[in-house]
Amino acid sequence: MSRFFTRERFGWAQFLAGGLLLIFFAQALWLVRSDLRTSDPSETEQVLLAAGWRQLQGGAIAGAPYPDAPGALPPEISRDAGGFDTEHSPFLPLVTAVPLLALPQPFLDAGFSPYWRWLVHTPFLACGIFLGASLWYVARRLCGYAGGLLALTLYCFSPAMIQASALWHTDPDIFAAWGSFGAIFTAIAVAHTLYAPREVVLWNWRRIVLLGVALAIAVGSEFSMIIVALAALGFMLYVAPIRRGAVFVIWTASCFVAALLLFATYFFHPRIFLQGLLHASFWGATWRGFTVPGVYGVVGSQILRGCPALALLLPLAFAAYLAWPRTRYFGNTAPGLVALLFVLLGMAHPHLAGAGFLFASVPFFLIFVSGVIADLMETSYRSIVAACVGGLLLAYILWNITALLHIPHG
Predict the structure, then answer these.
(1) For the chain, does the N or the C end have fewer beta carbons within 10 angstroms?
(2) Which residue has the higher pLDDT, 60 or 105?
(3) Is the overall model pTM greater than 0.90, yes or no?
């Protein structure tokens, strides 16, 4: 037990990271409270909640198809002429509705909605916390404590991340972001263990399950996130080129776990599951988005909404990465490549999936920026870089808190 409570696990940096996550949670709660006091549920929230609750009560599988006419659904719900959800599995409706199972049926009356609607937001709040904790863990390992705290601070005061965690007038993209982030870095971690002199498949069964869960969350939240599985395979082959056989076995096993979990969201109905997959849009990319000048402005604004501080930090990080060979190592390159891939996919998907890719790119940009800034802080210009970054973070935090305080609360 004494080996567990070490400074590596419970030092000042860990307590500071925990405090930042608590602040993030408080900001998201502030938005949830504002939403419950000043507005009714959005159309998207109502559709997800109704579909998920219907499935939990033994009714039709959510989105496969929706029982309502396609024209009656909000535009945020992508569907075909038959009413099938082409972008999402039943995962999001189930996640939205399952907390209500904790309440007795009489309390689910519309008159009690200001109270039970809190439960609807809890899975998304938890996912925001988990994504922040995952970001801290990865950034600390790749960039050190300074880089880890920088990445977590940028995340904890990100308007888009707070808004998505609170499900406040936005699409439920937080699960897709967490799943894709977890899948990429779990795959990299699995590949690094393949150099150990032991039976790799049996030894890695926990990471195989973890990778499968991450892929299931990403693809279940947004079908087009299946590209993450291919990206994960690419990184695994790059990190462990001499163990390609083990890589393919582990990756295949993880994909099987993900498919089984995805099948579970359809309550193990094989016919409905196959129909849902046949109507799913796993690849809706088109090159035409790259020819429209306005798309580039939208992409930039979406990324900066995810983290306004990137307006200064991202150009600086890219310039340093290109000019200074010391920054061009795998820990910086991998998240930068995934972020750029997601931006390109966001531009190539003109509809709902594009916004999901742009949102999911933000955590990878934060890792990339934090890694390069951490490298700059190890030079003789450490004091200047630290002062500039500290001033920027202070202004970033004050701006975000001021914006939150101006949100009405009934």
Answers:
(1) N
(2) 60
(3) yes
